[in-house]
Amino acid sequence: MADGFSIPLPGGYVKLPGGVRCYQVEEVVMGTEGVRRSEPLKVASTATDGITVITVAGEIDQYSAGPLIEALDPGALGGRPRVVVDMRRVSFMDSSGVNVFLFAHRDFGKAGGWLRLAGVCGSVLRILQLGSIDNVLDCRASLREALSP
C-alpha cells in the first residue's frame, strides 16, 4: 500500500498512513523517533547594583521552565524587583517560556519594578517577534545595555 500499511487486529485491519503510530483499542504503540527532549535548563542568579541578573542556559519549555519560574518569583525577589534575564545561552523557547516572562513582567510592574531580557537572539528572538511580544517585554541587545538606566 502506497499511503500506509495495515496491521491485523482482532476483528479486522487498521490502515495507518506513514506507519508512525499504531492504535489498538486495548493499547497505543508509538514510535519515539523524532520526539524532542528538552535539555536541562541552567539558571543562576546574581545581584549587581540592586539589579538581579538571572543567567539562563539551555531550552525553555513546559518541561524545563520550573527553575526559571522559581528564579522570577516576585516574593523571593522582594520589594521592587528590578531583573535582567541574560538570554544569550538560551537555544530554544516555546510559548511556555513566553508566558513565564509575560507573567513576571506583569507581576514586577505591579510591584513597581521591571523586567528586561538581554541578548535574545536567533529562534528565541523570532518567537518573541512573531507574537509582537518584543514590543511588550523590554528586550535589550546586550547585558551591558540591559543594566544601564
Quick gist of this model?
The protein is of the alpha/beta class and 149 residues long. 27% of the residues lie in helices and 36% in strands.
Explain how this protein is built:
The protein is an alpha/beta fold and 149 residues long. The chain contains five helices and nine strands. The strands form three sheets. The chain has a five-stranded mixed sheet with strand order 5-6-7-8-9. Strands 1-2 form a two-stranded antiparallel sheet. The chain has a two-stranded antiparallel ribbon with strand order 3-4. A hairpin with a 2-residue loop joins strand 5 (42-48) and strand 6 (51-60). Mean pLDDT is 82; it is low at 1-31.
What are the key terms here?
149 residues, alpha/beta, 5-stranded mixed β-sheet, two-stranded antiparallel ribbon, 27% helix, globular, disordered N terminus
Assembly classification: single chain
Low-confidence stretches: 1-31
For the termini, the CA-CA separation is 66 Å
**What's the total count of β strands?**
9
What's the average pLDDT? Answer: 82
Radius of gyration: 22 Å
Number of helices: 5
Largest sheet: 5 strands, mixed
- Characterize the overall form: globular
- Largest sheet, order of strands side by side? 5-6-7-8-9
Strand content: 35-45%
Order of helices and strands: EEEEEEHHEHEHEH
Structural class determined from secondary elements: alpha/beta
Name the helicity range.
Answer: 25-40%
Compile the SSE list and pairings:
Blueprint: E1 5-9, E2 12-16, E3 21-23, E4 28-30, E5 42-48, E6 51-60, H1 66-71, H2 74-77, E7 82-93, H3 95-110, E8 114-118, H4 122-130, E9 138-140, H5 143-147
Parallel strand pairs: 6-7, 7-8, 8-9
Antiparallel strand pairs: 1-2, 3-4, 5-6
